[in-house]
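step: validate -> pass
step: tokenize input -> pass
step: predict -> running
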Amino acid sequence: MSADQHEDGPAPGGSVRADSRRTSFRESPFLPAVVLSLILAAAAGLFAGSYTYTMANPTPRHIPAATVDYTGTGVPRDFVAAMEKALGASLELRPYRGQAAARADVEDQRVFAVLTFRGDDVRLDVASAAGQSVAQVLVQTAPRAAREAGAGLRIHDLKPLQPGDPRGLAIFYISLAAVIIGFVGAIQLSVHARDLDPLERIAAIAGYALLGSFSIAAVVDWLLGALDLPFAESWSILAFTMFTSGMVFTMFNTLFGRWAMLPTWGLMVLLGNPSSGGAVSWPLLPSPLGRIGQWLPPGASVNAQHTAVYFGDAQHAFPFLVLAAWAAVSTAVFWVWRHRHPGGRSADRPEPPAADAPAGA
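step: predict -> pass
step: emit ->
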């Protein structure tokens, strides 16, 4: 070994090899596999955390309730105070002159219960169909409040759930199915039908939305008998939901390419489903989630479906407008920036040779 080699150190071959290994790793399939593993680990924790936070121990904050006072002395504050103490929440009391007006607002889902006062007697009318979890906490706490206030108590369910769905979760499940199959279908189109042009892709999403939503409604109603659905309306809501979900992924696929699953999962599953009010009624959700959820596709779907099944004469336009807005914005973004979408048939892409073409043709 020469003196020059001792003075100058080893040849730079080791550094070149290290750079080569780093470059090789970046260009190999191992880098995205490692990144994806880390993302999936974080997503698993967030998924479990978001559902546990909202659903494991639902706590009432503010519960809108109607009051009808036949005593002429005003609402008995001792009973209301005992109810709020037992609930650990405040009752938003709204006075009505009679039962008819109060029950009309129950049908319109503006209030979740009706408190009627006659002398020392209290009648509590709940509506399980408006929110089974809210009705449950009211029924559990009312007897204790009546004992503390020295009042008589009668409880009645104005709008019970259907026998096949005693916990009121079927609507949440069918809406969840429509949301997840909606964007999973769009993912599969991007993998297995990559060459679809923009109009063809939109039509394919609309097609599987119509078929998939019919399947959901038919299984739940005709096969299992869990819910007696207003079939045409429920089918249309599920189809609208599935199409919107598919277009949301398509929009994110246009904007973010192969990482489109991240914002789709975050919006529709981590945030949208727990805040939808399907598993836990919105008065029991943390306040920000209860408000945000009504403006997201899963919450709009649950809202529209719930009203269609149990409050058919009081259907609102709001959830349909929310779904329409998300579908329209997603479709518009995809269409305007369709050249960025990773799919489609390129004009300069060489056509594959015909199967019967001679060699060298």
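step: describe -> Residues 156 and 349 are 69 Å apart (CA to CA).
step: cleanup -> pass
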